[in-house]
Amino acid sequence: MIHGRRLYGLLTAALIGGTGLTLSAYADVLVGTNGERFVGTIIQETTNDVVFASELAGRLTFPRSKISELQRVVTPPGTTIFLGAFATPALTNASMPLVANPAPTNPVAWKPPGVGTDGSDWVRLKSGEWLRGELKYIQNKEVEFDSDEMDQQTLKLKDVSQVFTAHRVFAQFEDRPPAYGKVAISNDVVHVLGEEPLSLSRDLLIGVTPSGGRTGMRDWSGSANLGLSLQSGNQHQTTLTTAAELARRTPATTLLLDYLGNYGVANGVQTANNERGNGSYDIRLDKDWFVRPAQLEIYHDELANIAYRLTGNASAGYYIFDKTGLEWNVSAGPGYQYTKFANVETNQSDYAATPAGVLNSYFKADITSRLTFIQSWQSIFTDRESGQYTHHTVSSLEFEIKRHLNLDVSLIWDYLQNPQPKSDGTLPQKSDFYLNVGWGVRF
């Protein structure tokens, strides 16, 4: 037995082959002066800083002035601690001057003293870590939280054990109108403390947002992506791809605005020039069904002979999968499309208008904790003059580098079954493919 060991929990256990050998790792705990609590491993200590590998946030550097407690686990020399992607030799007492050495506490029962009194929202993860800051929303099995120490984080709801809001928010449950009040989630029960107190199972929760439909910047989130490729020498080529998304969420609704543009020039010849803007509004009816009363898309592509194309539709949708790490929904409905062609042959109309049928699919799956696959697909069925059948699909791999920064790789496929001939009689290609690699930020 090792004397002086302060054990705050077994972090990982692994069986090696069929030998029955179990490897164990023990957690250090760092508590900030703002009350946030991190569970993990002390990597390095200097006179001014402590480098800490958090199970949630990865490698963090804390000034000693921002640390109120540092609780250590003493392990035998030479022992290796495994923590997520980190593997590091355990530190010894000699290499770790004591910042604080409190009496052992129960990590499950421990609660920051500021919860409910400091005007901040709080989230506790199943790992025992506590985050202090501002709750953005709970929706689609995700918790968007702006932490004081770690900035904005997207957490899986299954990894969150407790949530406490400092102010009144709107909570949406299945088959009930929105409830308004302070929300406390604990022990798989959601408590709404308002004029009409309410306690329901966490399984019935659809979403939580601060404003519940009122104007407020806390309901908005977004992302932006930029990819640029330059080539010189025998070939002179420039390719630029831009993408942006802005979303406003309430417990049962989502307003989504997005933009995608591609521009390319090779040896002075334009190889790509298209833009696509999309807006949609979804209302969640229950855990399976939603309606999209309005969706509007505007599209421009000179090389495809489209000056602009407007498509509006309404649809109903269904969630095939809706759980942490796996989401797939489909929707379909009627619409109307108007197309203005860039140029046409003599005696041909320069526009086409037609009823349309629109089919949408959105699929998202977490491959690892940092790597996500996303595919969106839209198919539009019209008359022959408008193209008869078009589809637009984007397949992406998003790798989270750090906090708000992603590395994105996307394959875009645009298809038009019957393109309109240009004034010189040439017929645009039916398919366009784009492979984009770029940096993305989330806010």
Summarize the helices and strands and which ones pair or pack.
Blueprint: E1 10-16, E2 21-26, E3 28-32, E4 37-45, E5 49-54, E6 58-63, E7 67-71, E8 80-83, E9 86-89, E10 121-125, E11 130-139, E12 142-147, E13 151-156, E14 160-164, E15 169-173, E16 179-186, E17 189-193, E18 198-201, E19 205-209, E20 220-231, E21 237-250, E22 253-266, E23 269-284, E24 289-301, E25 306-323, E26 326-341, E27 351-366, E28 371-381, E29 389-402, E30 405-416, E31 431-442
Antiparallel strand pairs: 1-2, 3-4, 3-7, 4-5, 5-6, 8-9, 10-11, 10-14, 11-12, 11-19, 12-13, 14-16, 15-16, 15-19, 16-17, 17-18, 20-21, 20-31, 21-22, 22-23, 23-24, 24-25, 25-26, 26-27, 27-28, 28-29, 29-30, 30-31
Q: Write down the overall mean pLDDT.
A: 81
Give the C-alpha Rg.
27 Å
Backbone shape:
flat
Q: How do the strands line up in the largest sheet?
A: 20-21-22-23-24-25-26-27-28-29-30-31
Distance between the termini: 48 Å
- For the record, the CATH architecture of the largest domain stands as Beta Barrel
Tally of alpha and pi helices: 0
Structural class: mainly beta
Spell out the CATH superfamily of the largest domain.
Answer: monomeric porin ompg
Q: What is the structure about, briefly put?
A:
This protein has 443 residues and is mainly β. It contains no helices and 31 strands.
